[in-house]
């Protein structure tokens, strides 16, 4: 005995299949989907690397600032910076360019 599905049952199954395809597509490609998550994780890693690089630069500048401060004066660093900024050399030095 062959039973035929009614039109309403066929429409129901087609709609459910389309709904399943839509949700599968949204889970992969949607704004909160898997691909967006991978992209965000990659961007996060890049930003963390950039933040760490900037933090190292800030730490270096903080160290130089401390070494040139009134509480702690590094004479060699002061001499180096003054020569660099003012373009001065000692009489006993030879400049190689």
Keyphrases for this structure?
0% strand; mainly alpha; cell division; membrane; 97 residues; cell cycle
Number of domains: 1
N-to-C SSE string, H for helix and E for strand: HHH
Number of helices, where a helix is a run of at least 4 consecutive DSSP H or I residues: 3
Portion in beta strands: under 5%
Q: Give the low-confidence spans.
A: none
> What is the global morphology?
rod-shaped
The main β sheet shows up as:
none
Helix content: over 70%
Q: Roughly what is the average pLDDT, rounded to an integer?
A: 87
Oligomeric state of the chains in view: single chain
In terms of structural class, how would the helical and strand content be classed? mainly alpha
How many DSSP-defined strands?
Answer: 0
Q: What distance separates the N and C termini?
A: 100 Å
From the alpha-carbon coordinates, what is the Rg to the nearest angstrom?
34 Å
InterPro entries: FtsL/DivIC
Organism: Paracoccus lutimaris
GO biological process, one term: cell division
Coiled coil: 37-71
């Amino acid at each position: 005995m062959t039973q035929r599905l009614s039109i309403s049952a066929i429409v129901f199954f087609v709609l459910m299949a389309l709904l399943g395809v839509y949700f599968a597509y949204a889970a992969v490609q949607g704004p909160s989907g898997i691909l967006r998550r991978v992209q965000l994780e990659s961007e996060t890693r890049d930003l963390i690397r950039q933040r760490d690089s900037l933090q190292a630069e800030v730490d270096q500048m903080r160290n130089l600032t401390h070494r040139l401060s009134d509480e702690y004066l590094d004479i060699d660093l002061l001499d180096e910076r003054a020569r660099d900024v003012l373009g001065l050399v000692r009489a006993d030095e030879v400049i190689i360019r």
